[in-house]
Specification:
Alpha-Beta Plaits, 6 helices, elongated, alpha+beta
Length: about 200
């Protein structure tokens, strides 16, 4: 790598190079984290593209490490970039709010009000009678887009604040009723298929 004249070799080797390695690792680990989550959620066409980008960046970073085996700051930059890349990748996926989840709700009291408000907000709800520790209970199921999850939880917490609920990822959904998006990003809406929600 060509070093600019205004940067001394010492500063480059002990400051600039480790920083560049850390940035490269942040990028490739972030991409790798997103790729793994895409794989788990069934995005089989995007995952290979991200894998290609990930490994190219990794090769650039490891190439610099191999040229500086006696520079311990490069190892520190490599490790710091790896750690930060995991965090940033998870945050990015959370912000993208992709995928579908199922909410299982076991309310602590009468469910009619909660069901009415969920359906009024255009969330599909399936009710199943079950037997709990203290007797009969109603179990509610709702499959929602992850980007609509916060709205559903807000309704649950308002109209049945002590309800027990679990949330799990769903890899694939066939048919069903989904809440129409109020605001859709062109990029993510086009890639992740939000423009073809079925009722």
């Amino acid at each position: 790598m060509i070093i600019p004249e205004w940067i001394s070799p010492e500063i480059y080797n002990w400051v600039v190079l480790p920083l560049l390695i850390a940035i490269a690792r942040i990028l490739d680990v972030s991409v790798g984290t997103i790729r793994l989550i895409f794989v788990s959620r069934g995005y089989k066409y995007l995952a290979p593209v991200l894998g290609f980008v990930e490994v190219i960046i990794w090769l650039l970073a490891i190439g610099q490490i191999m040229q500086q085996l006696d520079n311990f700051m490069s190892y520190i930059g490599y490790g710091a970039g790896f750690a930060m890349g995991n965090y940033i990748g998870i945050v990015i996926v959370e912000k993208m709010s992709i995928g579908t989840v199922v909410i299982r709700i076991i309310p602590k009291r009468d469910t009619s009000n909660l069901i009415a408000h969920l359906r009024e907000a255009n969330y599909a709800v399936t009710v199943v009678n079950a037997e709990g520790r203290n007797g009969p209970v109603s179990m509610l199921f709702s499959i929602v887009k992850r980007k609509d999850l916060e709205g559903a939880l807000k309704i649950i917490n308002i109209h049945n604040p002590h309800a027990f609920y679990t949330i799990e990822d769903v890899q694939r959904v066939n048919e069903g009723h989904f809440r129409e998006p109020q605001r859709r990003s062109f990029f993510f809406g086009g890639i992740f298929g939000n423009s073809h929600l079925r009722k």
